[in-house]
Amino acid sequence: MSIEYHDSNWEQLVPLGYQGVLPRRSRYGQDDAYELGLTPIEQAENIDVLAYEDLKEAITTAREAKAMPVFHQLDSWCDNDFRSNQNGLPYCWAWSATAAFMDLRALEAKETKFLSPVSLGWLVGWRARGYYLDETVSGIMQRGIAPTTHVDDNFNSTNSNPGTYRDGWEDEAKKYRLREVWDIDTRRGDKYIVQQVATAVCAGRSCYFAINAMSHAMQICGMHWTEGSYLNVKFDVRNSHNESTTLLTEGSRWIPDEAIVFVSSVLT
Amino acid sequence: MKTCIRTLALFFAAAWTAAAYGQIEVPAESEANTPIVATITTAVPTGATFDGQWESSAAFLPAGDNSIHLWAAPGTHSLSYSGFWVQVEPITFKDGDGNTITVQSYLGSGRVNETAEFSVAGGAEPDNPQPPGPVPTGPKHLVFFVLAEELDTMPPTQKYLVNSLTVRKDLTARGHTLLLVMDDDQLRMTSPGKWAPWINAVAGDQLPRVGIAPAAGGEVEDHELPIDYLSLLKLLGESP
């Protein structure tokens, strides 16, 4: 059973004063975003964002076919016994990016390999602080995520002392790099954001996203068409607060302020 | 120093150059109109790249990496297997300026050339010799090749063929394995490594496609990606 969050209890998800995400500096479709490797979803060659009128059928069919990332996630690295837990470290930006990346590898039919979110600590100089989603993605494109075998054999390790990691962890991390991502346009209203997210999720791709009011990053890995909900949708969200299941979110507070779709990873 | 290294490399190359031995196993005599199985065993060094092929005065079909099924008219027939192997190994050293240099060191190569004869009993040529049947079906490895930018516009049944967990579970239950979903960007890798046979199989073809190979090893066949799962099962020789 998923834990449900909506507009009236959304503030309970993160502690007061938490800061895990810094609002992005790059702009959708502009040179600074391209330089980080972010391709605007509308300019990813032939990608056509699903029309809102088509969402009901697309979401329903993709769920029936178990073609959304949440199904691959539960079947590979994150079954119902697994808990993703950043354990007080303000690294939601790393935990959710790693989750989205591991979902992508499952979708690509690659071997399940546990990767270490804390190994992305180099992005913040190994300090306990929040970071940018777009620049995290760029970091994963360049240097990858180290496998847990080279850190502490524990997905939830908060060991941010790379001196204790296994020799060669940085080289090993390069095997787990992103190749392609699509940037979601969040400037044109909630409805259009939902259409873009649905386009990705129905194509089996996760959305790495942030809610600025919470300063928190998570991962959308599934969607439901539910008449009467805000814009008639709910999201399956993988969070990193030691939950044993995905969250089920609904409401205007849960529409991403930033979102990036993980499309493909390097071939190793 | 460089001269010394070259000399050492040549020494090792010479020392490792070796022949590989092979042996063809085929029944010396068979009854007319019965399937004949021939097998080659070779002693190729571990890690070497090997390529070989069969030739015969009889008709034959491949039946795996090292075997063929033959059928022939009564009489004596020849059979040969020839191939070539090569083995290299990366060697890293530092030059006089302290730069790390890696070269592919040639360790050796060799040929396999084996011949055999077999005979088929009977005096009269059969009217219409038939092969012993199709290549045995069995577990297959699959790779889907897609265009990432068409993930939204592919027909839904084809899109779910690629992404559906239900499809993958059913393939697994039937003994098949989906090895990878690869997009077009990955086809342009400069070092495809173990994926090279798959990438070569679809080179120049219009995506999306599916590559299929026997799980036990063998040639990769590539096909247009079927429109739905039932069509894929048909391609795999499976019933729905």
Q: What does this protein look like?
A:
The complex is a heterodimer of chains A (268) and B (240). Helix content of chain A is 25%, strand content 18%. Chain A is α+β, with helices and mostly antiparallel strands and 268 residues long. In chain A, the strands form two sheets. Chain A has an eight-stranded mixed β-sheet. In chain A, strands 3-8 form a two-stranded antiparallel ribbon. The mean pLDDT of chain A is 95. Helices cover 21% and strands 40% of the residues of chain B. Chain B has six helices and twelve strands. The longest helix of chain B is centred in the N-terminal third of the chain and has 15 residues. The radius of gyration of chain B is 24 Å and the shape is flat. The N terminus of chain B is likely disordered. Classes of the chains: A alpha+beta (268), B alpha+beta (240). At the A-B interface, helix 2 and helix 3 of A face helix 2, helix 3 and strand 10 of B.
Provide keyphrases for this structure:
A: 268 residues, two-stranded antiparallel sheet, 7 helices, globular, B: 240 residues, alpha+beta, 4-stranded antiparallel β-sheet, 4-stranded mixed β-sheet, 21% helix
Short description:
Chain A contains 7 helices and 10 strands. Chain A is of the alpha+beta class.
Helix/strand layout:
The complex is a heterodimer of chains A (268) and B (240).
Chain A: E1 3-5, H1 31-35, E2 38-40, H2 55-64, H3 69-75, E3 84-85, H4 92-107, H5 133-143, H6 169-173, E4 178-183, H7 190-202, E5 207-211, E6 216-225, E7 233-238, E8 241-243, E9 247-249, E10 258-265
Parallel strand pairs in A: 1-9, 2-4
Antiparallel strand pairs in A: 3-8, 4-10, 5-6, 5-10, 6-7, 7-9
Chain B: H1 2-16, E1 22-25, E2 29-30, E3 36-42, E4 49-56, E5 59-62, E6 67-71, E7 75-94, E8 100-120, E9 140-146, H2 156-163, H3 165-173, E10 177-183, H4 184-187, H5 196-202, E11 209-214, E12 221-224, H6 229-235
Parallel strand pairs in B: 2-8, 9-10
Antiparallel strand pairs in B: 1-3, 3-6, 4-7, 5-6, 7-8, 9-11, 11-12
